[in-house]
Amino acid sequence: MSLATCAAAVNISADPSPRDGAPRSMEHGAGAERRLGSTGVMVRWTAMKDGDQRPLELGGQRYREGLCGLGRKQVWLSQVHGSRVVRVTGPEISLGEPADALVSARDDVCLTIFVADCAPVVLASREGVMAAVHAGWRGLMAGVVHAAVTAMASMGATEIIGAVGPCVHAECYEFSARDLDAVASRFGDEVRSTAAGGQSSLDLPAAVSVALREAGVSCVFQAIECTACSGLHFSHRAMRSPERQAMLVWRQSEKERDQENAGLFGKYGSRLVPNTQVL
Q1: Residue in 90, 84, 52, 48 with CA at minimum distance from that of residue 232
Q2: Any idea where the domains of the chain sit in the sequence?
């Protein structure tokens, strides 16, 4: 199954230029660091080439600091497909909390979500409040996106933008009619689709888009890779992979922004390179 087939199935253009207010889409959502507009919030979606990103406590490999927000404290969850949000507000950080979203305004932490088919969603505001959200269909039904936005607002966020990393797409996401009816009753018939074999399927990117729109979030980027058939990602659905990609979210410090503006890059500088995208 080709990447082009999946891209066509979700009706997302590979043109990185926004048209008619639609989110910019890139064939290669994984790998590079990206900054969400002028918020100072950075995101990186890893891929299979980066290896299993789960910490030892979750059965993965030891984490490699070079991918983790440039020297920051990594914060991660035991994801449960619900709507609980963990606020990271102080230096004492509890790892592995049962939840599906992390929210913080600190510049010394790296918020981390693990995925193999679910949608990794980053949210950011110009006030520097950020969120990392694990959005599978059950979490979306439970209201995880709205819960994360509400938590951000309680920490001072006003206008919020979002971006969605690689996840499973409709062409590869056969779904039972009963569950699909339930999701469609919540998010609308635009989430209904058809898998490659003709079975009913869920358009997960469409469901995420509706959830973001309902929460008042402007989506500025949506990766078009399908984790199940891109050949670039671990996939639970396609390969029963125990390994996971990571979405890494962090906020630039004032020092880092000054270094970047001056063209200097210190030990924990942003490492921006010419092909790094500003979303």
Answers
A1: 48
A2: 3-14+23-252
> pTM, whole model, 2 decimals?
0.85
Task: Walk along the chain (279 residues) and give the pLDDT tens digit of each residue.
Answer: 333 334 333 322 223 333 344 454 444 455 678 999 999 999 999 999 988 888 877 777 655 555 555 678 889 999 999 999 999 998 888 899 999 999 999 999 999 999 999 999 999 999 999 999 999 999 999 999 999 999 999 999 999 999 999 999 999 999 999 999 999 999 999 999 999 999 999 999 999 999 999 999 999 999 999 999 999 999 999 999 899 999 999 999 888 777 777 765 544 444 444 445 788
| R_g over Cα of the chain | 18
Output the CA–CA distances (angstroms, integers) from residue 267 to 33, 189, 255, in the order listed: 16, 49, 11
The CATH superfamily assigned to 3-14+23-252 is CNF1/YfiH-like putative cysteine hydrolases (3.60.140.10)
248 and 67 in contact (C-beta within 8 Å)?
yes
Contact between residue 55 and residue 65 where contact means Cβ atoms under 8 Å apart: no
